[in-house]
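A quick aside before the break. I want you to see a complete sequence-to-structure record at least once, exactly as it would be stored in a machine-readable document. Don't worry about memorizing anything.
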Amino acid sequence: MSEEVRVSRAAEFYSVESEFDKKLIEYRFRTLEPYLTGKSCLELGPGSGYMTSMLSDSFPTLTVVEGSQQLLDELPDIPNVRKVCSLFEDFEPDEKFDSVVLEHVLEHVDEPLELLSRAKLWLKESGRLFVGVPNANSLHRLVAEEMGLLSSKFDLNERDINFGHRRVYDLKSLSESINAVGLKIVKTEGVFLKPLSNGQINEHWSVEMWDGFYRVGRHYPELCAELLCVCEISRV
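That is the input. The structure line, written in tokens, reads:
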């Protein structure tokens, strides 16, 4: 299957995100926002555009790159946002950026180390790269493994497959990938302590419960649903 077809199929699922999906994107932004730097930002894979709208308020200029023209067309036209339709592997920017955001990107691509190496080149010397991925050690994955629903916490479940995921990271494998391309991690965060599936949470929990588990998760990043690494270019 070509990358274009994979991206097109996954785009159908990003167009029908639940309220909890949207809230989880807000939690991602709240977690990375204090570390954003500079005046220019590049976002790879805006998906539904919820993160894009928040990033556009934080930077004078924002460039978003998306492989699906369908998803790109669904993004609202914002004056300071430049939209580029391209596979990440083919993208060649004509500038460097202060902040580069790869939220839920590495688990999708065929060659994550190659993409990290290229993204490093898109950073200004003082810039920061933000890498967010689903966490194999998320509480809900560990419980699913104990219940026999997953043979391993690294298995791809049905939702992973629908969204075009190729792998699941833990902090060790993510850190090794980041360090391998000459980037250093200056901060690691966890996003949302998640004991149940998205569907169960979306159907049965209140917003107050969502917020409570987000706040508690800040104290237990190793068990959170998602990992965030704030990275800079290594000077060593």
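Two observations worth writing down. The first helix runs from residue 3 to 14. The radius of gyration is 17 Å. We'll return to this after the break.
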